[in-house]
Amino acid sequence: MSLFRVKDREFKKLATSAWPAHLFGLLTERLANGNGLLPERLLMIDTWDAPEGAAGLLALDAKGSLVVMLLAGGEPSGHAIREAASFAWRLRHVAYGELADACAKYHAQHGRTFGELAGFHADYFSLETALDAGLFNQNQRVVVVAPEYSEATLAAMRWRRLEMQLDAFSLLFIDIESDVSLVRIEPVDLVGGGRVTTFLSLALRAPAALVERLAPGEFRGESAIGEPIETGDRRPDEAPGQVPAASSKTFEYSALAAMVLLYIAAFSYLTVRLHNNFQTFGFDLGIFDQGIWLLSRLKDPFITVRGLHLFGDHLSFMLVLLAPLYKIWADVRLLLVLQTIALALGAVPVYLLAKDRLRHGVLALALAASYLLYPALQWLNRDHFHPETIATPALLFAFYFVMRRRYGLFAVAALIALLAKEDIALILMLMGVYIAVTNNRAVGLATTLASLAWFLIGIKFILPMFNQEGFFYIRNYSNLGSTPGEVIVNTITKPGLALSLLLQERKLVYLTQLLAPVAFSPFASIEVFLIALPALFSNLTSQQGYMDTIEYHYTATIIPFVFVSAILAIEKLSLKKREGALVAALILLIALTSNYFWGPLPGSQKYRQGFFVSDNGGRASAQAGIALIPENASVSAFYAFVPHLTHRERIYEFPNPYISRNWGIRDENPADTDSIDFIIVDYGKLPDDQRAVIDELRNTEFSQIYNKDGVVVLRRD
Questions:
Q1: Mean pLDDT over residues 496-521, rounded?
Q2: Distances (CA, A) of 391 to 376, 533, 554
Q3: Residues contacting residue 496 through CB under 8 Å, at least 6 positions apart
Q4: Measured CA angle at 711 (ends 708, 712), to 5 deg
Q5: How far apart are CA 672 and CA 701, in angstroms?
Q6: CA separation for the pair 595, 606 (Å, rounded)
Q7: pLDDT one-digit tens code per residue, 204-262
């Protein structure tokens, strides 16, 4: 709405850069009189200095909440709105007496008689009983009144509404011959229902905004083959009553957002609950938490939980980018929530790629749901925190971008994946080969060569800078060779040796659990699925038994290519619309069935193994014991207590440093035992040799200061 003037029988729009001279007085008078200018009556109590020529009023509503009003003469600036919100936030500590004094002074200046605030407030709003003094200013909100709002301003106000209740009204002002003035205020729809509804609305709209950035033109209504759709009431080929394309897309994006948000809420709760119940451990959550905490404090990230430099284990330089977040919330649970969000966002490229290749919205949604229900993904989410989980959505985005020939965004996504772990370079190397053959030779070759160079430089030169041995995980494949070169040569020249490992029953079960949730469809697009061959081969031939199971994090770089190959396999079927709907239903059925048998969600057969932890007395005892340990103390702690104590420079996983276990590369160079200030263990869960250490220490160098439910805390004398 705008300001107008009727003069000499001409209806003209006024310039909105400044208020008409008497408009502010007119507005404040009518607002103070409570004559229905706004949908609710407000009791004016003071003015405030609004910025940029706007006017500011303070008021109380019928519930005693404080209302900060911003009256703008033209388009309200983002700065003015922020100032109003910040001012309202600062007023949350204003006491009842200060409100009463301000109100008395304001009404005295306007020639009104004012009594005690609570009674005056009750009379003004015709309340049966006056509010108790403690009920005033329990809440604060902002009301903006302006003649015009741009879409950018409205968007900014919607986001501002997440942190504080904010309402907006448009102003129509008509000055008739400068003698008679008419003012009308109409509400602006900022999505009604308060902050919760605003948040949900914005969250449901976020995928549409993301799609518009990632796939320009997609939301503006392109046809299945990329041709513009005729504008009008409906497309020429659209039957009466058929859902319009824009409405269909809005439904799809809203459904996608709802699935992603539900996943984030469920797994954030489950993983944080797991941690709170002391079911996360020093290996690996404590390792990454201590490392990121040290980086955030600009300290040398030597991980005393592990006995290695943070980058002497893996080249996970992604952790440097996460360290600033600890300036906002220095809590290990940040990593659990961040990992959940990252994995959930992988559903977005799955949907986008499926929609782009299959031209079927419901089928694309079904594949996104299958991704979120995928048992290996949920177990990956449950396995504490690992930086390679960020590579899961990054690789999916990378593949989507390269299919759309958006090579700049592909490079960004590939770089993010590359920074997660050194062996992801091998995945990208094969992805480069695929790109060179099928998409763009120059981009593919550049990707392959750059990835191979990074891997070789990383394991040959960078890793040895942080540990004395370099890539020591090659010992997991000693049955194939003692160096990466020997492993590759022996695999090629002695295929029977590798096959004897790959055809074991547990390996076949592992492959079944990876592929059955997508109906083994990757076999129909095997050339894409085999981009994950480095990770598959590593897991299937390793001597570490936990690597060939979906219940750990070693599937992080396999999952993207399970779904990419499944999408491209379905594309080969050339499904019609009705067939696509049937396949979508089949995909959902298979996904739900697989999740029931192999997933960790509540209601599944493996929930107790995955997330079910009873809240017993041991939790309270552990928390009480941990609370006795000062923040800067050097501690040796039971493995389940370590992630709760890692924000310090020296934290060891007991029995370290008294007995070297899982320390360094080969338990070499143990730390000095005299440096330990506190020991905290769950005595009942220790093996006999470690109990003997505790028994000896609490009778010599340490005093026992706590012992309850098996939780023992020792303090150095």
A1: 88
A2: 15, 16, 12
A3: none
A4: 95
A5: 14
A6: 9
A7: 455 455 555 555 544 443 333 333 333 333 333 333 334 445 566 788 889 999 999 99
Cβ–Cβ contacts within 10 Å for residue 480, how many?
Answer: 21
Contact 275, 340 (CB under 8 A): no
Cis peptide before 228 (omega within 30 of 0): no
Q: What angle do CA 102, 108, 109 make, to 5 degrees?
A: 90
Give, as one character, the DSSP assignment of residue 302. E
**Is the CB of residue 653 less than 8 Å from the CB of residue 282?**
yes
Spatial distance between the Cα atoms of 60 and 80, rounded to a whole number of angstroms? 21
Q: Which amino acid is at 422?
A: E
Contact yes or no for 390/318 (Cβ under 8 A): yes
Compute the mean pLDDT over every residue in the chain, rounded to the nearest whole number.
Answer: 84
Cα 186 to chain centroid, rounded: 37
**Greater pLDDT, 408 or 72:** 408
Element containing residue 69 per DSSP (H, E)? strand 66-71
**CB contact set of 395 (below 8 Å; sequence gap of 6+):** 413, 414, 417, 424, 427, 431, 557, 560, 561
Per residue, the 3-state secondary structure of 247-294, as one string, reads HHHHHHHHHHHHHHHHHHHHHHHHHHHHHHCCCCCHHHHHHHHHHHHH
pLDDT in tens, 253-310: 899 999 999 999 999 999 999 999 999 999 889 999 999 999 999 999 999 999 999 9
